[in-house]
Amino acid sequence: MKDKIIEKSTEMFLVRGSKGLTMDTIAYEMGISKKTIYKYFNTKRELVKAGSEYLFHRITNGINEIMELNENPIREMYLIKDFVFKVLKSENTSPYLQFQKYFPKIYQSLITRQFAEMDKCITKNLKKGIKQGLYSKEINIKLISRFYYIGINNIKDKSIFNPKDFTATEINNAYLYFYLKGICTQKGLDLLNNYKKSEK
């Protein structure tokens, strides 16, 4: 039951945000009593923390599984984009911005580990791309990895990317395309443009 509560509350958090997540709404959605929830979690903060761990490991494990497929690095980045986009419920506010605003201590813990995992993933992808002749050998891997990290964590900021002007799909697709375009060789660009055409 504990795992089900964590999974459901995380799903609700992604869709409704922090304000829409209460013990009452979770109990109602799951058809259980609040007493059952409080048996495992004393406060909403405890539940959100457990949910943040669940989300972190779900995304990390999913990305690792994609990288084990040994696809070419450009396709690998597209698969990762689609996976994370699906997990984070596409159109909704980044959970990390929600954590930063309402649960700063949870945010600080998450962001440190998130960077470590993402840096490892992107560094591996960049090295593979250079080796296969798809990415420029002149790029600074350490720097580009950080460029990617900063960008991907901010493209869901609705104060900058107003949903009235841009869809989440449009933003995610454009971000990945121009990130990759900036580091690709001509060989890589030919492959990248094929993926771009397939999105239409």
Automatic annotation (TrEMBL):
Q: Superkingdom of the source?
A: Bacteria
- Specify the DNA-binding region ranges: 22-41
Please name the taxonomic classification of the source. Answer: Bacteria, Pseudomonadati, Bacteroidota, Flavobacteriia, Flavobacteriales
Q: What is this protein called?
A: TetR family transcriptional regulator
Q: Which GO molecular function terms does the record list?
A: DNA binding
**Organism in which the protein naturally occurs:** Winogradskyella ouciana
Q: Which residues form the HTH tetR-type domain?
A: 1-59
What the entry lists under InterPro entries is as follows: Homeodomain-like_sf (IPR009057), HTH-type_Tx_Regulator (IPR050624), HTH_TetR (IPR001647)
**Sorted alphabetically, which keywords does the UniProt record give?**
DNA-binding
